[in-house]
Amino acid sequence: AKKLLQGRAHRRYVSAADIINRAGVSRRALEALAEGGAMEAISGNRHASRWEVAGVQRFTEALAGATVEEKAIALPAPTEGQGLTADYRSLGLTLSQTAWYYSGIAFLGGVVGIWLGGVMADKLGAKSKAGYPLTPAVAFLISVPCFLLAMNSGVLVGGLGSQAALAVAFVIFLIPTGLNLTWLGPITAAVQHLAPAPMRTTASALFLLINNLLGIAVGLYYFGKVSDVLKPVFGAESLRWAIYTGMGFYLLAALLFFLASRRLERDWVD
Predicted confidence band at 177 (pLDDT cuts at 50, 70, 90)? Predict the structure, then answer.
């Protein structure tokens, strides 16, 4: 990954031959890029990427900097099902294994994060009600660099075997997953105490309605749209960069939680 980034710092790659000769990556690494869809911005689709990689050769020192003109062959783009299958194959996992992998991250990280957020908020809240919004505010600020690290865990595990790389990435992703869910207990409790006892069920229902409308409905549309907008520039990596932009929402949420902590004490209803 470092070789690819160093080579791209000067100018964008224009072909598989350009990548292997300028970045100095191995043929196996180049095949993995094609299989994972990382070369779609260059070749157009996975089928064309595989074809181009199959015929690429590393130049000798005497031919360094030379170019080879070869007529491109138009290959049909893979279907959505073929692309999905290739995605799983590039990870070395089957469909069911992928489901278990991601559900394990969500389950373990979620359980620890929700429990830890509740415990810490109750301890801080015993001294000041500001502790309820401040707990997720701090967690969100910590989660941003952790999530960026997790999204780029391939740089850390690139030299490991596929199974070891998946294991390390699993552990790394647990941290931001847990931190992102520390808000659930403290904020739900705070929302309930902003209204009198007879209105707390309605207050919680309205909060969850708005949270799901913005977080799930609008959120999914936002990332899909941004990914589509960025695809001409980043190709198969467009979704990764769309997710990067979402880190700004965590920073905004942390700011809003901090501002709320300054008024929560006086607005709290026992």
Answer: very high
Least Cα distance to 19 among 35, 36, 39 occurs for: 39
Task: Give the Cα separation of 183 and 190 in Å (integer).
Answer: 10
**CA-CA distance, 70 to 65, in Å (whole number)?**
16
Instruction: Tell me the per-residue pLDDT of 29-74, one tens digit each, with 9 for 90 and over.
Output: 666 666 666 666 666 666 666 666 665 665 555 555 555 555 666 6
For the segment 147-156, what is each residue's pLDDT rounded down to a tens digit? 888 877 766 6
User: How many Å from the N-terminal Cα to the C-terminal Cα in the chain?
Assistant: 55
Query: Which pLDDT score, from 0 to 100, does residue 257 have?
Result: 95
State the DSSP string of 197-261.
GGGHHHHHHHHHHHHHIIIIIIHHHHHHHHHHHHHHHHGGGHHHHHHHHHHHHHHHHHHHHHHHH
Farthest-apart Cα atoms in the chain, separation? 83
Concatenate the DSSP letters of all residues of 17-80 into one string: HHHHHHT---HHHHHHHHHTTTTHHHHSSHHHHHHHHHT--PPPGGGTT-----PPP--PPPPH
Which residues 6+ apart lie within 8 Å of 72 measured at CB? 48
Residue 172: which of 153, 198, 193 has the closest Cα?
153
Structure tokens at 7: 């080579």
Rounded Cα gap, residues 18 and 67, in angstroms: 9
**Whether residue 142 has pLDDT greater than 90:** yes
pTM over the 0.85 mark: no
